[in-house]
Amino acid sequence: MTKYLQIRHWDYWWGVYGYLDALVSGVEFSITEDRDGEQLFFHMDLYTLPALEEFLKSEEYIEKTDRSFPCFVEMSSALHRGSMEYFIGGLYYRDYWPEIAWCNQFWQEEKGIFSLKSPEREPYYAVVFIREERPLLPKLLLEWVKKLSVPLFRISDDYEIANQPSYEAAGAEYQLELERMK
After folding, report:
1. Cα–Cα distance between 39 and 117 in angstroms, integer?
2. pLDDT at position 153, please?
3. Among 4, 70, 71, 155, which one is most buried in terms of CB atoms within 10 A?
4. Mean pLDDT of all residues in 109-124
5. 16-27, pLDDT tens digit by residue?
6. Strand arrangement of the beta sheet that strand 2-7 belongs to
7. Beta bridge partners of 169
8. Which residue pairs from 150-153 have beta carbons closer than 8 angstroms and sit at least 24 positions apart in sequence?
9. What's residue 120's pLDDT?
């Protein structure tokens, strides 16, 4: 079965096509059952090691005073050392916000991510940090989502990016954004 990635922000495409100087080190997307994006399966933010390093420096993702910060640093170090390929930086529920250690317990239980239910529901969104240095361009993004599919969801589906804009369309949107910022 094929699932579809719906990229949520133009800045990803601007980075892919070189309209931004920054490397593509993260992407926010929805996974849907259909190409049109009507049947949601899951939301995900996926970040590479360069993004993780920036988050650690800037405290943009997690502040040093947060009680999950030591766990975040420990998992970040393990990712850098290569003793893990990815970790969950956060799971979102409609009614619950767990700590990072709780978000990663499914590994030990050899279960899928949907086994981590809040008191009433399964998660609908995850922030995932991956052991990857290269820019997260479309081909690599698809490879990582496929690789993560089995441990996270316990499925082995194929994935495609839906609605990938052309270079020209991304450029036109970039110009519109520049005009809005003036």
Report:
1. 21
2. 95
3. 4
4. 77
5. 999 999 889 999
6. 86-92, 125-130, 40-47, 26-32, 2-7, 158-161
7. none
8. 151/107, 151/112, 151/113, 152/112, 152/113, 152/126, 152/128, 153/42, 153/112, 153/113, 153/114
9. 66
Instruction: Show the tokens assigned to 84.
Output: 């893990």
Q: Residue 170 class from Cβ within 10 Å (0-12 exposed, 13-18 middle, 19+ buried)? A: buried
Locate 1 and state its tokens: 């079965």
- Which whole-number Å values give the CA distances from 150 to 128, 138, 158, in the listed order? 14, 20, 11
- Per-residue model confidence as pLDDT tens digits over 74-101: 999 999 999 999 999 998 887 667 778 8
Q: Coil, strand or helix: which one is 47? A: strand
| Burial degree of 36 (CB within 10 A; 0-12, 13-18, 19+) | exposed
Pairing mode, strands 40-47 and 125-130: parallel
Give strand pairing partners of 129.
47, 87
Written as one letter, the residue type at 92 is Y
List pLDDT tens digits, range 129-175: 999 999 999 999 999 999 999 999 999 999 999 999 999 999 999 99
Tokens coding 89:
């930086």
Kindly provide the residue ranges of all beta strands, DSSP E only, lying in 8-157, ordered along the sequence: 26-32, 40-47, 86-92, 125-130
